Amino acid sequence: MKLLVATDFSELAEKIFTEAEKLATALSAKVFLLHVVPPASPIIDLRLDAETIIPQDEVLCDAGYHHRDTPESLKMRAIAARFREKRIDTTILIAQNNEVEAIVNESEKHGADMIMLGSHGHGALFHLLIGSVSEGVIRQATCPVIIVPSRNR
Predict the structure, then answer these.
(1) What is the Rg, in whole angstroms, of the alpha carbon atoms belonging to the chain?
(2) How many domains is the chain built from?
(3) Which domain covers residue 6, as residue numbers?
(4) Running DSSP on this structure, what letter comes out for residue 145?
(5) CA triplet 107, 109, 111: central angle to 5 degrees?
(6) What is the DSSP secondary-structure string of 97-129?
(7) Residue 39 sits in a domain of what CATH number?
(8) Helix crossing, 99-109 with 133-140: angle to 10°?
(9) Along the 153 residues of the chain, how does pLDDT read in single tens digits?
(10) 47-62 burial, b if ≥16 CB within 10 A, otherwise e?
């Protein structure tokens, strides 16, 4: 069993990690922790620091190559260490792309049996204007998608 867990380091992230740990333990799943760095937006004309830009096709993976430490990679290593302390086989992935495309592409590339990500619970206007990563992943994924809600029961 392979579980791809996508994170944006938001306040919802902790809840996602807790649920992923439970599921990975129960299913003896290998976890792929994925953080997606979105490309710079031409609409906003945002100029990113060269250190934060990762080439489109490059994926930082703790089992592969990484040429520099970024804030994202350091956070991901800390999260992976937490999973590994619980004896969960964990691999770190960092990609730069559109969030939906990156999540779907990485899940297919690594043969994920399930994808887990959060839903921030933005309003209807936000979804109309901006869209939703979770909705896009549900529509495009070739495996089941587990959405962790932002609200508590």
Answers:
(1) 15
(2) 1
(3) 2-149
(4) E
(5) 65
(6) S-HHHHHHHHHHHTT-SEEEEEE----HHHHHH
(7) 3.40.50.620
(8) 40
(9) 999 999 988 888 899 999 999 999 999 999 999 999 877 666 654 544 444 444 434 444 544 444 467 788 889 999 999 999 999 999 999 988 889 999 999 999 999 999 999 876 555 554 444 457 888 898 999 999 998 887 665
(10) eeeeeeebeeeebbbb
pLDDT of residue 58: 43
Tokens read off for 20: 């992923």
Q: Which two tokens stand for residue 83?
A: 């999973």
Tokens of 21: 């740990």
Say how far residue 142 (Cα) sits from the centre of its chain: 16
Residue type, 118: G
Crossing angle, helix 13-27 and helix 71-85, to 10 degrees? 40
Q: Which residues are within 8 A (CB) of 98 and not within 5 positions of it... i.e. 6 or more apart? A: 38, 39
